[in-house]
């Protein structure tokens, strides 16, 4: 597709205020119309994220970031990479892009009304075409490289549950082995797997991503799944996560995609601080295993409600005992008297700059953090207080990203 003209770039950038004002309305309109015309795409998208609006906000955030930086494509690499990894994990294909483009442009025209002039719509058609070509190219390379590597495959492949283990009151781990017995390709610490299954009573399949929580060994993958209870009567619980916990047992088969994800441990010699809240511990575990025994000083910080909700505690403590470069700090927000007597934690209450700072390694460190929204916001505030530059911050969002500022700033 020919590159955008200077006037088209100017028009797209000039629409940023309208997108900021109407972006979520446009994307909600887009999803409703697209699913009505193409219900088969419900096999890709998480209905809970549609109901809560997270998917619409994520698309609005990506469209807004693209429009704002369309004249600086070099700054978009982090966002494109993050979206491409998610698309590959969902098996998004080139033929999906024209469908999305058609309904996105119609949604822009419908919401903006008379303000959507032919010049604006032509500019946005060209802008979407340029982005689609970029995404298709990046994703094709990822698909080809994934399939070409030893043990690689395309699409979803049958795996058998070799072990199911309760790790805490709400988290269960699943060790998965390929049904065909072939060796597995390695993955980068921090990446995730996609699981595809059809829950009883549903006429569409569903895909969910779960972080890999054990080191790469060429034989099996381990994921950890949190039971997701409804936060209020209007919010659904975790359809697939709860199905896995309640109904999938050792010996059952699941369809699994190749590992994906751009939240990965960087290859350098700086000290590392890993910060996790709740189930956010899962990507940190594979990072911790990779760091064990290296020359990189590593601080592993985890926040949980209490001992009952503290997953993988023994595994982390064993790594810290065996490897001198690892130290741990545990926060319990609601410790019990037994937690106090047994010394299960180091700090009580919410994580804060004043309680964390004495534990931090000397010198410039890299910070990796993952957990619920409240936890990640608190960590970002702490890192701001410590004047940690964006280039040394790495984070993961479970679910559709609500902002792409972290990867854009890097």
Topology, pairings included?
Layout: H1 6-14, H2 16-37, H3 47-52, H4 54-68, H5 77-89, H6 96-112, H7 118-148, E1 157-166, E2 171-178, E3 192-197, E4 206-211, E5 221-226, H8 239-247, E6 253-256, E7 272-277, H9 281-291, E8 298-304, H10 313-322, E9 326-332, H11 337-342, E10 347-348, H12 353-356, E11 366-370, H13 373-385, E12 393-396, H14 405-409
Parallel strand pairs: 7-8, 7-11, 8-9, 9-10, 11-12
Antiparallel strand pairs: 1-2, 1-6, 2-5, 3-4, 3-6
Helix pairs in contact: 1-7, 2-4, 2-6, 5-7, 6-7
Brief summary of the model shown:
This protein is of the alpha/beta class and 410 residues long. It has 14 helices and twelve strands. The chain has helices at residues 6-14, 16-37, 47-52, 54-68, 77-89, 96-112, 118-148, 239-247, 281-291, 313-322, 337-342, 353-356, 373-385, 405-409; strands at residues 157-166, 171-178, 192-197, 206-211, 221-226, 253-256, 272-277, 298-304, 326-332, 347-348, 366-370, 393-396.
Describe the fold and architecture.
The protein has a 6-stranded antiparallel β-sheet. It has a 6-stranded parallel β-sheet with strand order 10-9-8-7-11-12, with helices on both faces. Residues 399-404 and 406-410 have low confidence and may be disordered. Helix 2 crosses helix 4 and helix 5 crosses helix 7 (118-148). Helices cover 42% and strands 17% of the residues. The protein is an alpha/beta fold and 410 residues long. The protein has 3 domains: 6-148, Globins (Globin-like, Orthogonal Bundle), CATH 1.10.490.10; 157-256, Beta Barrel (Elongation Factor Tu (Ef-tu), domain 3); 272-409, Nucleotide-binding domain of ferredoxin-NADP reductase (FNR) module (Rossmann fold, 3-Layer(aba) Sandwich), CATH 3.40.50.80. Helix 9 (281-291) links the parallel strand 7 and strand 8. It has helices at residues 6-14, 16-37, 47-52, 54-68, 77-89, 96-112, 118-148, 239-247, 281-291, 313-322, 337-342, 353-356, 373-385, 405-409, and strands at 157-166, 171-178, 192-197, 206-211, 221-226, 253-256, 272-277, 298-304, 326-332, 347-348, 366-370, 393-396.
């Amino acid at each position: 597709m020919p590159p955008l003209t200077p006037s088209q770039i100017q028009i797209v950038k000039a629409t940023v205020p309208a997108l900021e004002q109407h972006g979520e309305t446009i994307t909600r309109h887009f999803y409703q119309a697209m699913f009505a015309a193409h219900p088969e795409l419900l096999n890709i998208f998480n209905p809970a994220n549609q109901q809560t609006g997270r998917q619409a906000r994520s698309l609005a955030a990506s469209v807004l970031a693209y429009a704002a930086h369309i004249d600086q494509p070099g700054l978009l690499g982090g966002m494109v990479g993050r979206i491409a990894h998610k698309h590959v994990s969902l098996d998004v294909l080139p033929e999906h892009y024209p469908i999305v483009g058609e309904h996105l442009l119609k949604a822009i025209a419908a919401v903006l009304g008379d303000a959507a002039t032919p010049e604006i719509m032509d500019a946005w058609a060209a802008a979407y075409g340029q982005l689609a070509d970029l995404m298709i190219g990046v994703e094709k390379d990822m698909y080809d490289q994934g399939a070409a590597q030893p043990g690689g495959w395309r699409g979803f492949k049958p795996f058998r549950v070799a072990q199911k283990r309760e790790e805490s009151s709400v988290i269960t781990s699943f060790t998965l082995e390929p049904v065909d017995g072939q060796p597995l390709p390695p993955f980068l610490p921090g990446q995730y797997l996609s699981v595809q299954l059809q829950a009883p009573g549903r006429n569409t399949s569903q895909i969910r991503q779960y972080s890999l929580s054990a080191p790469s060994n060429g034989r099996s993958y381990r994921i950890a799944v949190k039971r997701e209870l409804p936060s209020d009567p209007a919010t659904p619980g975790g359809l697939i996560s709860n199905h896995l916990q309640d109904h999938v047992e050792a010996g059952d088969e699941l369809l699994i995609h190749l590992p994906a994800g751009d939240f990965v441990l960087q290859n350098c010699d700086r000290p590392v601080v890993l910060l996790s809240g709740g189930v956010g511990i899962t990507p940190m575990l594979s990072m911790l295993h990779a760091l064990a025994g290296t020359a990189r000083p590593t601080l592993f910080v985890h926040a949980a409600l209490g001992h009952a909700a503290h997953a993988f505690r023994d595994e982390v403590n064993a790594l810290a005992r065996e490897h001198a470069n690892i130290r741990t700090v545990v926060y319990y927000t609601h410790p019990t008297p037994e937690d106090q007597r047994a010394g299960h934690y180091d700090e009580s209450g919410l994580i804060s700059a004043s309680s964390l700072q004495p534990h931090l390694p000397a010198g410039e460190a890299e910070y990796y953090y993952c957990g619920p929204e409240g936890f990640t916001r608190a960590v970002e505030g702490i890192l701001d207080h410590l004047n940690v530059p964006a280039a040394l911050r790495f984070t993961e969002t479970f679910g559709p990203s609500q902002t792409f500022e972290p990867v854009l700033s890097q």
